Amino acid sequence: MKQSAVLLAGPTGDLGTRIAKALVSRGADLRALVRIDAPDAHLERLAQLGVTIQPADVADVESVAAACEGVSCVVSALNGLREVIVDRQSLLLEAAVKARVPRLISSDYSADFTKTSPGDNRNLDLRREFMGRADRADIEVTSILSGAFMDMLGAEMPIIQPRLHRVLYWGDADQQLDFTRKDDVAAYVAAAALDEETPRVLRIAGDTLSARDVAAAMSEATGTRYRTLWMGGVGALGVMIRLAKLLAPQPRAAFPPWQGMQYMRDMFSGRGKLHPLDNARYPEVDWTSVRELLAQRA
Ligand SMILES: NC(=O)c1ccc[n+]([C@@H]2O[C@H](COP(=O)([O-])OP(=O)(O)OC[C@H]3O[C@@H](n4cnc5c(N)ncnc54)[C@H](OP(=O)(O)O)[C@@H]3O)[C@@H](O)[C@H]2O)c1
Hints:
By secondary structure, the protein is α/β, with parallel strands linked by helices.
């Protein structure tokens, strides 16, 4: 049976595609907001999922408001810097208010930026700024905070060093870190999109464990002993960030190396730690543990 209509912004992206699949599997009437000139390959992929394609001039509030007509929730999976996270999402917010959409889920999916320090993490600062705008708008907005995407462990987040058989850490090897697999984030977002009573913030973590636990999980998965490797105190990350910004500033990149280090600092300092967790709100979501993920990879 078809459920309430949801408009998804960013359906062509990595997380957006996963959210689209999760919403379709829940029977949602899903409309995928795409640019007027979206490439055919993107449209075909979305059509195969069975979603309604909703082309719009994504820079025009009236056009986006028309795409929002009649939906009960707008979900954002947009990704980018200020012009996307603050400017384009603000346009989406304004369009949703114009179309009298009751709820919007913003593109947050990160460490807990309600607790980290302003100025410490550029991408989290942008989300905090959008949150301020969203809180002044006449619509219910929910932020879903998920910690680091687990899929990035040992890849974009290179704390696992297979050649050295080491897991890198800063500060305390027992600091608890939050990870959630992308598909689990998507399943939760889909459930939240169809839930009319979501609170302002939902915090989730598929697994919470320390660098020492990751080393034990790697030992178990590979049959080779992994140990932790101390890279310095959390303050050392501040020095590395300043150096990386100097040597490779890449101001237009969404995720330059120094940005990754800013996330590491928020994780290993414990400032971005998610607590309390709202995992149990949708009992049907099945959470992947880091042990399971590493065992599957091995
Ligand atoms: N916690 C973590 O570890 C972690 C890791 C990665 C990502 N994330 C978060 O997950 C969310 C989605 O990221 P992702 O990796 O799925 O991003 P992605 O693959 O880069 O997809 C971004 C989406 O945003 C759309 N978009 C970008 N700029 C736009 C603009 N100016 N106007 C309209 N649409 C625009 C793109 O549409 P087009 O295809 O039309 O350009 C695409 O659909 C973001 O909030 C990101 O920060 C979290």
